[in-house]
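$ run holo --ligand "magnesium ion" --emit tokens
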Amino acid sequence: MEFRLIDRIRERTAQTRDDVRLGIGDDAALLAVPAGQELAVAIDTLVEGVHFPVGTAPADVGWKALAVNLSDLAAMGATPAWALLALTLPRPDAAFIDGLADGFAQLARLHRLALVGGDTTRGPLTLSVAVHGFVPPGQALTRAGARAGDAVLVTGTLGDAAAGLRCLQPHMDVQTSLRDALVERLNRPVPRLAAGLALRGRASACIDVSDGLLADLGHLCIASGVGAEIDAALLPRSSALLGLFDEAAARDFALAGGDDYELCFSVPAARVAEVQADLARLGCGATRIGRIVAGDGVRVRDADGSRLEPGRQGWDHFSA
Ligand code: ADP
Ligand code: MG
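-- output --
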């Protein structure tokens, strides 16, 4: 039974790569790391009811499990190559597996990524994906390296995924097209791989926004030994977010909502225009939202210049 499930996954995710000497089916995969490249590896786990809502479509679950991992490679400026999938399922369900494998494969194909192995067990629905990518030696982007005076930028828009999750709650009776756009951002995050490559040699530090801008920029600041100031008025928000929520709620989703999978990065001030032009050409764009300062911590200024204070459990709209 388990083997038939694995066959279904293998067939649906088939992707040939010269560097995969032996893929799914043996005791281990055999992979050829290209000469002169460093291997970037990352793993993230999604648990049903914790990292995605119960009832999420299987194809969305498969896509998202890969996307959150590719986002980590994007933040390092790495090019993806291979993945492993450890899958825990409550019951052997062929239709569910097919959907999940199709969603995973849809994103994998966009990046020529090969699924080379994994593990399949019984238990509460859980997916762990490990990804492997390449980066030229010494060129990876890291969280360390931001300097006082650098500009802070973010790709795309912030807050949509968290707002999408809010829209899934009962009694949220909202306009369907806007709601669908936000839920799409929650279920089908787009890893910013091309942006990560474009930032190599230019960004002084980079992180992907998975836990919310304030939390993740905070991690970048700690790793770099600096602080940051953010102007709330500059936060990029989608028209769907602003169409469904008031300004304060949209601001809080953008500051503290998770699951955006945008890149937040620092760039020496003199290179901001050049980086913005390149990322605009790549389609995601990048918005300058603040600056790196000496010291520590992330401070947020509201449009009128006053300082915003986060509550103990995050921002007010989130603890509500
Ligand atoms: P073993 O007991 O040697 O670990 P398994 O039966 O767990 O073998 O797996 C058989 C083959 O199928 C291995 O090559 C493994 O990498 C692959 N595999 C198992 N589960 C998955 C999965 N969910 N996705 C992709 N490959 C898988
Ligand atoms: Mg195994």
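-- notes --
Residues 312-320 have pLDDT under 50 and may be disordered.
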